[in-house]
Each structure stands twice: as structure tokens, then as C-alpha cells.
Write a sequence for this structure.
């Protein structure tokens, strides 16, 4: 018997109560958990970058390019888990040529391209153009060529042009903020608009996705910032780190409030689906929801960060705690996506029973595949740091 | 500039990749409707059965199982009908107690006036139903 | 006098502008009407198919599910169904028990003694071919669509396998076919009804519990069934406007 059938027969034996026969198979698995997770990192990192640029939070200057490059490297990978999850991946282009406008999923391709091409690439290019031109003059051999190509032929370094670059970059960042909101709010809408699924169908879903995206993106940039400084053996800019932590705390509080509101609303309204969701949350989701998502992923980081706001100096301790919180927050948000995507498919739409979910190590829907889609953006990020090192830029 | 080039490229690709009949009736490939009609039916309907087996048909129609189609018990008829004389693929003639029990086993969800039911465990233990009941005329013995 | 004239003329102009503007806006908005309703409304010409299911008559033999699998090459595994039969048993203590062993194909056996049972009945399930189908609404590429006859169909050569429609169907009527790797669902036997045959499940039903027909034809058997019985649809609060109508449907059925 094929492994897939074997797997389904195993799941069939673990059904709890009654589910519709077609519901044995969990249709959206770990790859679809990764998709909102990765796009969330992108949107969050970009929003942190724009804090510096648009809202003039000068302390965050050292993280500006790091945040942008992080966003770019994760953005490049964002669609891959989606495409690799399709049953017919070779047909993915259809979503671009015949987008069905009543579908919440249809314009993803355009939103994605808009964000990648227009916002991220253009902004980074404009920001780096002066350096790329200078590098193309300094370097020799192959690298000289590479940088020359990257200038796209625009080598004018007169003051007015550079100023124009800056103005245009600023303008794109302003467009970029609503775009980042759109990108991730939209991902939330893909889930929030499925009326057949009471665990997903809530108007708050896009907003919750957005704020959890900011939380995870800020946490990621914080970690990358610390790791980069550690590897380069530089003394970290504590003022900057403290500021990031402050924004992380704010985002966490907002996210916590929104998720709390969602749950309170759900509990108080107690609609038809409430009983089954109650059993779901207290049963199959106990660990991933209460322990990982809320306690370790939100409450512990919130308390830690709030306490650290009042601690002066003690930089070594602070750095360690920031690192710990960052990792906890990232795991917490990952489990938030998990609880939404997988949790929403564990109960039957008949509300009479549950199916189970078992993750395999290998296979197209396995842990290895998921790990690949997480390692790949990190590799791209390392490459970008090598190609466009934010620390070797020329002072204006 | 680059932007316009990109949109132009996209439109060209869109033109060539969109299937011809797309949008004919709505936002889908119009030909899909015709393709959906192509499949050959497996269940032929009892008129086709009556062409050869009219005797059985007359018997069945005069009795309790009149509302059943031949293919309800004997399965899809296409292969049997299209088989050549030399190699006739006979349709199944299920006669196990379990098969009759699919309809006639006692079950609280079956109404007594809607369908006759027996307790499979008690009713003439171990005997085939067809020993006493002719499926085409249930109150006659099978000849 | 002259002033009044000017005033009324101005009035007329502003009103005319308003009407023109309104027309312009509504003309611009009309292409989006399909966005608002998600699917086109009932076709007025040609057939608009639906199905009546009489739960009074259903004996839970599962022949419909069996015939469907044969007719439509549905895999025989117990987790791929275009149509299946459920048995509901409501006990005297008020608890509801539902089962559908292998979709009902192998028959049902009574799980509770008669004394404990308050009410028990069978419910055949199938695609509801909703007039406002959420599944065709969410297809990102137009690979599943509502046909001119009001049927939700799939174009297997165009489906991406993104499974969004599987998530969007409130009735669990879609699955990914393990051989073709595209979504599969009830077509109301489109290849049969377009040749004048009945859907396979209707053809083999021994009790005539399933009534296939055209809702646009006032003389069709289905319309007659709907006149004579107080029918109900599944999950009406979803506002999907299902076109499978059940006689004697109880509130426990979901």
C-alpha cells in the first residue's frame, strides 16, 4: 500500500466521534503553517525598518538595513512552501493569468509581486545604489562586474541624484507600510473569510495576523542584529537593542489584547460551534495553545521585557534575556500559526468529532521539507550580508 | 521603464497561457463542460437490461422488488452489455445473507412499514436467503 | 422671474448631473455584481438542477454510495466519497450518535438496544450544489465553477490542488483524488444527466428516496416533491443556498 493510504488508514483508526468521511485527510499541513509564519516575519521586519525611516526613530538606525535585508530574504522564500504544497505545482502560474476575483487567494500573486518587486527590491536598491556604484569602482574582477550589473546602469553620483534616491526611497517606504499591512492582513483574511470554519472565521483574524506578524518580525530582527554583532565581534549598540525590545513589548501587548479579545468574544457569544472548539482547545491544543503560544510565547516574554524596562545597565544579563525572549516569541508565533492552521482542521465541520494530525519527518509535507524552507531564507540572508554588507557602507 | 517592460511581458504571457475557451460562459474554461460530458456511463439503466432479460423484468416488476433497478443488486451493466458473445462478463448475483441484510437487517432507523426486516442472527440461521426467497419475486421459492 | 428661471435651470442641471453620475457609478459597479453575490443567480432559461432526498424512505442500504464509486472512479478507500450515508441515533438521554462506516457501503448494524433509542434515521449526504457555493467562490483560478445548469463542477485539467475549496465547503463534500491529484467531488453525474440518464445514485436507489430534477421546470418530479413536503436544507445559516432538499430533516443533522 502507498504510504499516503497507510497514513490515512492510521488516521481513520484514530478518529474521535464522528467526522465526515472526506475529513480524515488534513488538507493544510506544516507547509501552510510556515506560509503565514514567513510572510509575517517579512511584514514585521519591514515595519520595524520603516519606523526608522518614516517615523524618524533615530536610535534604530543600525537595524534599518538589517531589517530590510531580512525582510527581503524571507520574502524570496515566502511562496515556496505554498507552491511545494500544491498538488499540481507546475500549474501555479494560473493564479497570475486567470485570477478569480471572488477568491481571497487569487490576488496573492499580485500582492506578493507588488511587495517584493516594487517595495522591497526598489527600496533596498535605492538605499544601496550609492554604495553599489562606489563598490563597483573599488572592487576588481568578477565582483566589479556583479556590482556593475547591480547598478542597472545608473552610476550618477551627483548630490542631486543621491538626494533624489533618498526622496524616492522615503516615498516607497511610505507606500510600503500600508503594503506590509496589506500583505499580512490579507494572509489573515484568507483564513478569516472561510465561513465554513468557525475557528478561522472571525473579523479579527487579519488584525491578529498583522500584529502577530509585527511581533515575530521585530523579534527576528532583534535576534539577527544580536547574532550579526556577535559574529562580527562588535560591541552591540545597547540603546538600539533596548529600543527594539520596547517596540517588541508594545507589539506583544497589542497582539495579546487582540487575541484575548477574540477569545473572550468567542467564549461569551458561545455560538453553535462553541462546544466543539471548547473540547478542541482543552484537548488536542492544550500544549500548543496554552503552553507554547500563550504562556511561553506571550506571557513570559511580556513579563520579561516589561521588567527589563526598569533595569538599568546590566547589559550582559539584558542581552541574554533579549535573546531568550526573541526565541520564545518566534516559537510562540510559530505555534500561533500552527494552532490556527492545524487546529482549524482537527475538528469536523459536523461538530461531532475530531480527526488527528501526525507529522512525518520526511516526505513533501514533512519536517525536513519545512526545515528546508526555514533554513533557505537564513542562507539567503547570509549571502545578502556578504553581497551588501550594511557595515561596510560609505558615510555620506 | 523596467516596470512597463514587466507589465508588457506579463500581458504577453497571459495572452499565450490562458486557455482558448476560458471565460466563454464564466470565469472558467468553457471546454471543461464538454469534457465533463465525455465519460461513458457505467450504469446503463434497466431498459437496457430488459432488451435481453424481459422475462426477469416482467417477474420483478410484478413483485415486491419492482422499485429496484436491476443494477441495484447486480451492479453496473456497461461491461456486461458491451462484452462480446464469446467472453460474456456476467454481472454478480450476490446471494449472501449479508448482502440481503444491507437492506433487510433489523435496524431501529428502518421503519417497519417502509421495509421488511429480519433479525439476521435469528432468522433461519446459516441458510441462504435465496433458499426460500426468489430475489425477483421474494414470496416465491427460487426455482 | 429671470432669477427664478436661472435657479430652476441650475436645479435641473444639478439633478441631471446627479442622475448621470448615479448611472455612471452603477454602470461602473455592475461588473462587480458577481463579486457581491459570489455566484450568478438562478438561471432563468434552461435547467437548474437540484435533488430531493426523502429521509422517510431511506433505508440506509448505501447502494447510492457504492454506485457512485463505480460510476465515477472514486477510490474504494473509506475516506474518499462523493456521496455517503450517515446513521443518526438519538438516545433517550439526549445524546446524539452519528456513524458512517465506509460511507454506508457495507451496510449498518444497530449499535444500541431498542430500549435506549429515542429516534434513529439515515441521512444520505452529497454535494449540495449550492446556488451561492463557497467552494467555487474561493477557487483562485476558476478551476471549479458553477455550470450554467447550476452545478458545482471541477475542471481537472486546470485545478492547482491548493485545497482552498476543500476548506471552504461546509459540508465536507470535496477531497483530493489520490490518483489524479486534483480535487474531486459530486458532479450530479454530469456525463449521465446530459445524456438523459439519471445520476447513478438515483438510478440504483431501491426506495426512490432520491429525487433528481429541474427546479426551473414546474412539472418536474423535484418541484412536485418540494410542494408536497416540508423540506429543509443543511446548515441554512451558512447562506449557501443548497439545492439538495431533505424531507423530514431533523435539527440534529449537521
Amino acid at each position: 500500500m502507498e504510504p499516503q493510504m497507510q497514513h490515512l488508514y492510521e488516521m481513520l483508526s484514530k478518529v474521535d466521534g464522528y467526522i465526515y468521511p472526506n475529513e480524515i485527510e488534513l488538507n493544510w499541513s506544516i507547509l501552510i503553517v510556515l506560509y503565514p509564519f514567513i510572510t509575517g516575519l517579512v511584514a514585521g521586519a519591514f515595519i520595524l525598518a520603516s519606523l526608522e525611516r518614516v517615523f524618524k526613530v533615530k536610535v534604530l538606525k543600525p537595524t534599518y538595513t538589517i531589517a530590510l535585508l531580512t525582510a527581503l530574504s524571507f520574502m524570496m522564500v515566502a511562496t515556496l512552501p505554498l507552491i511545494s504544497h500544491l498538488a499540481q505545482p507546475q500549474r501555479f502560474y494560473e493564479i497570475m493569468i486567470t485570477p478569480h476575483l471572488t477568491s481571497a487567494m487569487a490576488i496573492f500573486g499580485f500582492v506578493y509581486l507588488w511587495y517584493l518587486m516594487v517595495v522591497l527590491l526598489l527600496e533596498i536598491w535605492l538605499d544601496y545604489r550609492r554604495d553599489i556604484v562606489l563598490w563597483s569602482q573599488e572592487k576588481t574582477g568578477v565582483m566589479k562586474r556583479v556590482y556593475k550589473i547591480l547598478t542597472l546602469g545608473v552610476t550618477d553620483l551627483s548630490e542631486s541624484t543621491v538626494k533624489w534616491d533618498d526622496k524616492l526611497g522615503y516615498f516607497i517606504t511610505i507606500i510600503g507600510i500600508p503594503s506590509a499591512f496589506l500583505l499580512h492582513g490579507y494572509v489573515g483574511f484568507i483564513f478569516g473569510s472561510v465561513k465554513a470554519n468557525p475557528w478561522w472565521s472571525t473579523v479579527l483574524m487579519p488584525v491578529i495576523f498583522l500584529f502577530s506578524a509585527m511581533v515575530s518580525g521585530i523579534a527576528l530582527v532583534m535576534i539577527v542584529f544580536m547574532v550579526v554583532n556577535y559574529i562580527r565581534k562588535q560591541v552591540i549598540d545597547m540603546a538600539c537593542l533596548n529600543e527594539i525590545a520596547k517596540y517588541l513589548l508594545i507589539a506583544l501587548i497589542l497582539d495579546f489584547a487582540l487575541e484575548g479579545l477574540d477569545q473572550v468574544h468567542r467564549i461569551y457569544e458561545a455560538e453553535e460551534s462553541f462546544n466543539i472548539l471548547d473540547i478542541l482547545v482543552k484537548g488536542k491544543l492544550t500544549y500548543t495553545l496554552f503552553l507554547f503560544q500563550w504562556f511561553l510565547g506571550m506571557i513570559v516574554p511580556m513579563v520579561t521585557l516589561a521588567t527589563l524596562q526598569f533595569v538599568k545597565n546590566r547589559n550582559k544579563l539584558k542581552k541574554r534575556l533579549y535573546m531568550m525572549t526573541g526565541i520564545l516569541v518566534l516559537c510562540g508565533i510559530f505555534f500561533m500559526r500552527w494552532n490556527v492552521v492545524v487546529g482549524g482542521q482537527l475538528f469536523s465541520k459536523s461538530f461531532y468529532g475530531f480527526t488527528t494530525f501526525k507529522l512525518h519527518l520526511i516526505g513533501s509535507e514533512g519536517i525536513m521539507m519545512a526545515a528546508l524552507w526555514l533554513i533557505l531564507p537564513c542562507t539567503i540572508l547570509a549571502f545578502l550580508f556578504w553581497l551588501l554588507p550594511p557595515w561596510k557602507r560609505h558615510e555620506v | 521603464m523596467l516596470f512597463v517592460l514587466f507589465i508588457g511581458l506579463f500581458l504577453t504571457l497571459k495572452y499565450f497561457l490562458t486557455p482558448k475557451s476560458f471565460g466563454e460562459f464564466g470565469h472558467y474554461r468553457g471546454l471543461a463542460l464538454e469534457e465533463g460530458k465525455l465519460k461513458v456511463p457505467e450504469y446503463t439503466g434497466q431498459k437496457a437490461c430488459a432488451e435481453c432479460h424481459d422475462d426477469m423484468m416482467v417477474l420483478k416488476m410484478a413483485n415486491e422488488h419492482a422499485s429496484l433497478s436491476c443494477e441495484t443488486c447486480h451492479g453496473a451493466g456497461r461491461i456486461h452489455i458491451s462484452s462480446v458473445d464469446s467472453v460474456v462478463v456476467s454481472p454478480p448475483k450476490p446471494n449472501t445473507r449479508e448482502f440481503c441484510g444491507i437492506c433487510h437487517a433489523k435496524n431501529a432507523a428502518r421503519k417497519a412499514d417502509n421495509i421488511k426486516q429480519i433479525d439476521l442472527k435469528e432468522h433461519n440461521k446459516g441458510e441462504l436467503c435465496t433458499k426460500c426467497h426468489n430475489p425477483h419475486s421474494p414470496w416465491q421459492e427460487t426455482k | 422671474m429671470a432669477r427664478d428661471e436661472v435657479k430652476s435651470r441650475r436645479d435641473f442641471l444639478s439633478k441631471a448631473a446627479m442622475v448621470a453620475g448615479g448611472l455612471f457609478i452603477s454602470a461602473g459597479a455592475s461588473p462587480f455584481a458577481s463579486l457581491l453575490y459570489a455566484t450568478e443567480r438562478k438561471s432563468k432559461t434552461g435547467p437548474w438542477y437540484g435533488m430531493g432526498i426523502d429521509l422517510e424512505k431511506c433505508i440506509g442500504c448505501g447502494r447510492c454510495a457504492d454506485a457512485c464509486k463505480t460510476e465515477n472512479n472514486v477510490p474504494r478507500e473509506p475516506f474518499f466519497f462523493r456521496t455517503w450515508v450517515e446513521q443518526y441515533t438519538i438516545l433517550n438521554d439526549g445524546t446524539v450518535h452519528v456513524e458512517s462506516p465506509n460511507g454506508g457501503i457495507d451496510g449498518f448494524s444497530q449499535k444500541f438496544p431498542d430500549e435506549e433509542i429515542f429516534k434513529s434515521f439515515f441521512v444520505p449526504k452529497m454535494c449540495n450544489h449550492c446556488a451561492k457555493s463557497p467552494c467555487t467562490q474561493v477557487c483562485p483560478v476558476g478551476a471549479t465553477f458553477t455550470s450554467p445548469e447550476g452545478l458545482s463542477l471541477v475542471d481537472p485539467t486546470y485545478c492547482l490542488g491548493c485545497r482552498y475549496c476543500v476548506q471552504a465547503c461546509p459540508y465536507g463534500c470535496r477531497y483530493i483524488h489520490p490518483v489524479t491529484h486534483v480535487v474531486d467531488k459530486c458532479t450530479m453525474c454530469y456525463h449521465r444527466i446530459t445524456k438523459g440518464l439519471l445520476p447513478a445514485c438515483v438510478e440504483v436507489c431501491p426506495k426512490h428516496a432520491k429525487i433528481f430534477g429541474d427546479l426551473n421546470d414546474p412539472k418536474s418530479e423535484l418541484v412536485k416533491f418540494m410542494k408536497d413536503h416540508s423540506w429543509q436544507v443543511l446548515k441554512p445559516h451558512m447562506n449557501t443556498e443548497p439545492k439538495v432538499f431533505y424531507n423530514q430533516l431533523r435539527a440534529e443533522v449537521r
Observations:
- The mean pLDDT of chain A is 92.
- Chain A has one domain: 27-341+359-389.
- Residues 27-341+359-389 of chain A form one domain.
- The radius of gyration of chain A is 23 Å.
